[in-house]
Amino acid sequence: MRRDQASIEEVARDLERRTLAALPCELAKLVYSASTRDYNTGQYRHDGLAQAFTAEAAQEALARCHDGVFRGLTFENLAGVVRDLQAYLHSTRQDEGKILAAWDRLEAYRVLVPATCGALDRDLFVSNVKIALEIVRSALAEGGSPGERPRP
Question: Is the pLDDT confidence value at 2 over 50?
Fold first, then answer.
């Protein structure tokens, strides 16, 4: 298959249909997309897509999908980011408090930012995630859900 616009779009549709659609929330899609990127080179890799199409088309499609999911989550309102973070935490089936503590300590959310992202978008994303982490952590500490009103 050629590495033209049509093949990249086809690869992106395949990725969205077969993989990303099965993930429970946008943050899970972002984590998955970022995980296909080699942190040493910045190149994306997906053996199945590369075999079905080409490595170059897979690289470009993965980069586009990563960027698209990132932008969607970055420009989501704060309540949406909080809901998405809750859904992501729940989907991991791990201790949510431990995940929140690790994300604070390691700032793991920083590796989710695409390499092509500008400083302003990166800073907005990081700020929104930090605020969402604090909202979710506070709600967990109070034994409630971030969507509930505090009890008088």
Answer: no
Query: 120-140: per-residue pLDDT in tens?
Result: 999 999 999 999 999 999 998
Assess contact for 5 and 60: CB atoms under 8 A. no
For the segment 10-57, what is each residue's pLDDT rounded down to a tens digit?
999 999 999 999 999 999 999 999 999 999 999 999 999 999 899 999
**Prediction pTM value:** 0.88
Q: At what angle do helices 78-92 and 119-141 cross, to 10 degrees?
A: 60
Phi, psi of 142 (to 5 degrees): -85, 0
Residues 6 or more apart in contact with residue 4 via CB below 8 angstroms:
none
Alpha carbons 146 and 87: distance in angstroms, whole number? 12
Which helix H or strand E contains 99, and what residues bound it?
helix 96-106
* Domain residue ranges in the chain: 5-74, 78-141
In the chain, what percentage of residues exceed pLDDT 90?
82
Rounded to 5 degrees, φ, ψ at 64 are -65, -45
In degrees and rounded to multiples of 5, residue 44 shows phi and psi of -95, 145
